[in-house]
Design brief:
This protein is mostly helical and about 230 residues long. It is built from ten helices and three strands. The chain folds into two domains: about 150 residues, Ribonuclease iii, N-terminal Endonuclease Domain, Chain A; about 80 residues, 2-Layer Sandwich (Double Stranded RNA Binding Domain), CATH 3.30.160. The longest helix is centred in the first third of the chain and has 22 residues. The radius of gyration is 18 Å and the shape is globular.
Amino acid sequence: MDEGLLALQRRLQHRFTDPQLLVRSVTHRSFSADHNERLEFLGDSVLNLAVAALLYERLREAPEGDLSRVRANLVKQDTLHTLSVSLGLPDVLRLGEGESRSGGQKRPSILADALEAVIGAVYLDAGYEAAQALVHRLFESVEINPQMQAIGKDPKTELQEWLQGRKMKLPQYRVVGTLGAAHKQSFDVECEIEELSLIERGIGGSRRSGEQAAAAAMLLRLPVKAT
């Protein structure tokens, strides 16, 4: 690894047994076919579990709905972008020339995705406990309290709450296609609610924004208006 990644490793407080995992985690698809999207997919799940466990311990009196809203605020793009910048991820991202020229190092969606990929890389390198410890360190300086629920809901959170309030399973999101050149791609995402036999799609400039667009489309299809 180069000095930049060695410094990132120190900030993460995790020494990689397989350094190539860290290299891949900061590699955007515009740079190489060996990019970070699969690690991002894995890290997203690890992050959600680790944050859920953190909230379960810290907010002992909070009901499920409040826990869901607080978690949504902690794992949303804006929060992950801020944490990514504090880790110095913009300085070590590996981007293709076109993506770099268009300001990819500062793009919140790319940085948030890279942080999830780093979490996924730590999970593969050393297991869940190491990844959970990293997530807890990342959120040490983030204020966590039930009042976070008052922050405006995004479509994914609103859809999740609507389903949970009716004791239904959470929606499934799948990327069904990508459009455009590697440095300026759009993601076509499908949102499915099996119990209602409903499927909607949305397109966004990142996987996250595609999921939000699909969730927004799904909200319009619900038999009772979400509140």
